[in-house]
Specification:
It is found in: Endomembrane system. It contains 7 helices and 7 strands, in the order E-E-H-E-E-H-E-H-H-E-H-E-H-H. The protein is α/β, with parallel strands linked by helices and 216 residues long. Bound molecules: guanosine-5'-triphosphate and magnesium ion (MG).
Length: 216
């Protein structure tokens, strides 16, 4: 979802959290939206979401962040989860190699279900457990470069880089959208069409709007 509206916020961006069970997705969400952390959080069942409104390049952006279970059997219907998402935080646990090895699997799932222009941030969580590290920063950086992702190591526990991870994703989305809006405006000007109010609908959101409007 990347709608431009006139009241409490300028943009609404849907961001999804993905990654194996136990990597810390729900705690990243609670840290970002409520500044809370739970040492003994339970596995997510189904889908939850939380929002936070913040400023990006002088615009008010409402981030609507969706969280589901990493465990297959608790996951909600995949296509509905990804529908309308303009950003994704793909999380692994720096102390658990398997969760990093599965990043490719999550990328495939994104490719299959999400918009091809989705902005993706790879997040190596639990950076506070450096002494238990089993994934080097360099390995993750290499993978991120190869796959064209942004990358940060985060700690939901220490509130390290969580804010930055979301800010980076939101800024990337915003920049894509404003470039598209500018291109649309320029195209309209060059074709001599009358100038009206510009409605910023990206490729990302147009899929959704179509689906939402015409599914029956
Ligand atoms: N040390 C440390 N522990 C963390 C961090 N983030 C989460 N945890 C712990 O890791 C465990 C799992 O965290 P969750 O946030 O529930 O993991 P999840 O990815 O949402 O798991 P599912 O809902 O099963 O997919 C909990 O015990 C958290 O307290 C972190 O940054 N550092
Ligand atoms: Mg969870």
């Amino acid at each position: 979802m990347a709608y431009r509206v006139d009241h409490e916020y300028d943009y609404l961006f849907k961001i999804v959290l993905i990654g194996d069970s136990g990597v810390g997705k729900s705690n990243i969400l609670s840290r970002f939206t409520r500044n809370e952390f739970y040492l003994d959080s339970k596995s997510t069942i189904g889908v939850e979401f939380a929002t936070r409104t913040l400023q990006v390049e002088g615009k008010t952006v409402k981030a609507q962040i969706w969280d589901t279970a990493g465990q297959e059997r608790y996951r909600a219907i995949t296509s509905a989860y990804y529908r309308g998402a303009v950003g994704a935080l793909l999380v692994y646990d720096i102390t658990k190699r398997q969760t990093f090895d599965n990043v490719r699997r999550w990328l495939r799932e994104l490719r299959d279900h999400a918009d091809s222009n989705i902005v993706i941030m790879l997040a190596g969580n639990k950076s506070d457990l450096n002494h238990l590290r089993s994934v080097s920063t360099e390995d993750a950086q290499m993978l991120a470069e190869k796959e064209g992702l942004s990358f940060l190591e985060t700690s939901a526990l220490e509130a390290s880089n969580v804010e930055k991870a979301f800010q980076t994703v939101l800024l990337d989305i915003y920049q894509i959208i404003s470039k598209k809006a500018l291109a649309t405006q320029e195209a309209a000007t060059s074709t001599g069409l009358p100038q009206g109010t510009t409605i910023n609908i990206t490729n990302l959101s147009s899929n959704i709007s179509k689906r939402a409007c015409c599914s029956n």
